[in-house]
Amino acid sequence: MVVVSNRDRSHGVLEKINYPVDIRKLDVAELHILAEEIRETIIKTVSKNGGHLASSLGTVELTLAIHYVFDTPRDKLIWDVGHQAYAHKIITGRKDLFHTLRKKGGISGFPRREESLYDVFNTGHSSTSISAASGIAEAKCLAGGDFKIIAVIGDGSICAGMAFEALNWAGDRDKNLIIVLNDNEMCISPNVGAMSSYLNRVMTGQTVTKLKTEVKNFLRSIPSIGEQMFKFTKQLEESLKGLVVPGLLFEELGFTYVGPLEGHRLDYLIKNFKNVKDLRGPILVHVITRKGKGYQFAEDDPSKFHGVAPFKIESGEAHPDNPARLSYTKMFGKTIVKLARENPRIVAITAAMSEGTGLDEFAREYPGRFYDVGMAEQHGVTFAAGLATESLIPVVAIYSTFMQRAYDQIIHDVCLQKLPVVLALDRGGFVGSDGPTHHGLFDYSYLRSIPNIIVMSPKDENELQHMIKTAVECGGPVSIRYPRGSGIGVNLDDEPVCLEIGKGEVVVHGGDADLAIIAIGSTVYPAIAAARKLRDDGISARVINARFVKPLDEQLLCDTAKNVKKIITVEENVLMGGFGSAVLELFEKRGIYDVVVRRLGIGDEFVEHASQGELRKMYGIDEEGIIHTARSIMDRGAATLSVIAS
Ligand SMILES: Cc1ncc(C[n+]2csc(CCOP(=O)(O)OP(=O)(O)O)c2C)c(N)n1
User: Fold this and answer.
1) 51-61 as b/e, with b when 16 or more CB fall inside 10 Å?
2) Is 644 helix (H, G, I), strand (E, B) or coil?
3) Is the beta carbon of 125 within 6 A of some atom in ligand 1?
4) Predicted pLDDT of residue 199
5) Strand ranges for 225-278 from DSSP E
6) What sign has the CA pseudo-torsion 442, 444, 450, 453?
7) Mean pLDDT along residues 236-251
8) 624 is catalytic
9) Cβ proximity of 57 and 298 under 8 Å
10) What whole-number distance in Å separates Cα of residue 533 and Cα of residue 341?
11) I want to staple 457 with a disulfide (CB 3.0 to 4.6 A). Which of 171, 431, 521, 542 is the partner?
């Protein structure tokens, strides 16, 4: 067990390590010390910066063994999701930068090709590693090189459709490809589904297999009758194969199965990887690890320590962050439970993220109406569509970024059939330190272009509860997106009520206004604050909370444009095809050409990691940014139709 004290303790192995070539000089005892030092480094850094702790602690020995045996970076190592790759970062040239993990300008929490030669493929979303590794293996084959390609994938991630598609492909291609299945029996919560049960049987079957080998050896050792008996048991074994032979499923798919291996014994891992290195064709190495290994609090509660905010090492407790304010996630969770009490048709679906989406309370209260489909967003959405055809009201809670996976399902299975599926998109907008793979910056654009769907976003946690009520009662496809983190801290109405679909609200009238700020979701309060400051400068601004990206409140927006000729739209979304685009399209449709429109949002680029506050500032959608734009638009004087995008 790693004990991390506040003072730096060093056994001196890690300080000599910069690259994998350095670890290849160590013996197993030194490697074990190194593993402990790496764990201390990870725990210390994550306790300050937040991050994916439990998964990374579980893969320390696995990481060392792979880099020890294989010739990285010549041999290619691909991490699935990449949240478990902190040890990999530390021993591939980033030890001295590790304290900057997930900070603005610092190293990313996921593998990044831009960061290191050792990061072969950028990751963040799950279940891509086998496909990527297969592509690399084919390319290497075309080029005629002899390399080892290793993909490390978790037991949660291997259950997603993409991973199955890739296994189906790779098992048949006969390319040299090593898939390391890192099995800790956990996704974020305990893993679900038939594959997970199968892996469990494989693990428990290991004892049976050992026993079987011993019996066979014993029989063979009996002179004359032994060989006969051995043949008989061989036949018996064939018929029992599915029950006791580990990894038969993978063997049937065309992989050589190796395992299950104990994932924290370096001597054992190294020996087995050395053997595997000489094998050819597709191989699956099944490694059993413990999530959170080495930090008791994380071992005891790996779900809580999967992804953590800064915490105190001694107690494992998080540092309090705005404790008085309810998070959007909590508000969603509470409201959906409340509504489900009154309406038995409401059911809830998560894709392996019941805590993250706030559905854990629903799961406890209504286990029979709650479905964790595993890391399978596509299946989750079409499954919801199926439920909806039978008069249920499915609420699918998936982070905005992961909902991207289910785009065709939303179009084809939900919207085309006008089914009443509620898409609850948590983590809309900037998510902060998880960076470009996790920001939810596309959903307004990707959803509003689909016919039949209502797209809304609340200005605060109170409006969120009303939107959830509106969504479950609207009778058609609908999405609500809300941000990561704490709400505004507003008073909460006792009961959620339905909002009028497509109606915005004027939140600051601004009298005979000089300009209008049309905001949506997380940008409404900064717009209100900006209007107050602008008033002190003698600029009067009207602020509209649009509430709906689709359908827009056409009357309100057109009247505003006619009266107030200068318009700023603000959104925490990409500008292309987003909310501001919708407003422009409306003006064009209604022939309103004599306005100056300035759209604030995210331009045509991927956004790096930094805190949410830093990013809102950088992209000019916070109070200060809106003030700056308002002043500049006032300086321009009146103009006829002129659209200035950020
Ligand atoms: C497409 C997608 N959905 C959801 C997530 C969020 N997520 C990150 S890691 C994780 C669990 C991964 O489980 P597993 O592969 O078993 O790895 P472990 O953390 O247990 O090591 C989830 C659900 C994601 N990264 N990508």
Assistant:
1) bbbbbbbbbbb
2) strand
3) yes
4) 84
5) 256-262
6) positive
7) 60
8) no
9) yes
10) 44
11) 521
Q: Is the shortest distance between the CB of 186 and ligand 1 below 6 Å? A: yes
The pLDDT, as a whole number, for residue 225 is 55
What does the mean pLDDT of the chain come to? Answer: 91
pLDDT bracket for residue 242 (50, 70, 90):
very low
Q: Which of 37, 61, 355, 377 is catalytic?
A: 377
Q: Kindly list the domain boundaries of the chain, sorted by start residue.
A: 14-201+260-300, 328-481, 505-645
Distance 443 CA to ligand 1 centre (A): 21
291-317 per-position pLDDT tens digit? 999 999 999 999 999 999 999 999 999
Nearest CA to ligand 1 atom 16: 156
| Structure token digits, residue 236 | 């018996």
460 pocket-lining for ligand 1 (C-beta < 6 Å): no
pLDDT for 190 equals 82
Which fold is adopted by the domain 328-481?
Rossmann fold (3.40.50)
pLDDT digits (tens, 9 = 90+) for 63-108: 999 999 999 999 999 999 999 999 999 999 999 999 999 999 999 9
- Test site for ligand 1: of 84, 110, 188, 293, most ligand atoms within 8 A of the Cβ: 188
Sorted by sequence, the CB contacts under 8 Å of residue 562 that are 6+ apart come out as: 592
As a whole-number percent, the residues of the chain with pLDDT over 70 amount to 89
The reply to whether ligand 1 has any atom less than 6 angstroms from the CB of 152 is: no
CATH architecture observed for domain 505-645: 3-Layer(aba) Sandwich (3.40)
Q: State how far the alpha carbon of 558 is from the alpha carbons of 391, 553, 554, 588, in Å.
A: 38, 9, 6, 10
CB atoms within 10 A of CB 154: 30
User: Which atom of ligand 1 approaches the CA of 405 most closely?
Assistant: 1
Catalytic residue flag (residue 616): no
505-645 shares the fold of 328-481: yes
SS3 (DSSP) at 597: strand
DSSP state of 93: I
Q: What is the pLDDT of residues 135-148, one digit of tens each?
A: 999 998 888 878 89
Q: Which residues contact 193 (CB under 8 A, 6 or more apart)?
A: 159, 374
Class level of CATH domain 14-201+260-300: alpha beta
Q: pLDDT by residue (tens digit) across 25-66? A: 999 999 999 999 999 999 999 999 999 999 999 999 999 999
Atom 21 of ligand 1 has which residue's CA nearest to it?
55
52 lines ligand 1 (CB under 6 A): no
Distance 337 CA to ligand 1 centre (A): 25
The residue to mutate among 61, 84, 157, 407, having the most atoms of ligand 1 within 8 angstroms of its beta carbon, is 157
- Is 448 designated active site? no
Helices (runs of H) and strands (runs of E) counted in the chain: 25, 18
pLDDT confidence tier of residue 241, bands split at 50, 70 and 90: very low
What is the model's pLDDT at position 339? 98
254-263, pLDDT tens digit by residue? 999 998 999 9
HEC assignment per residue over 27-68: CHHHHHHHHHHHHHHHHHHHHHHCECHHHHHHCHHHHHHHHH
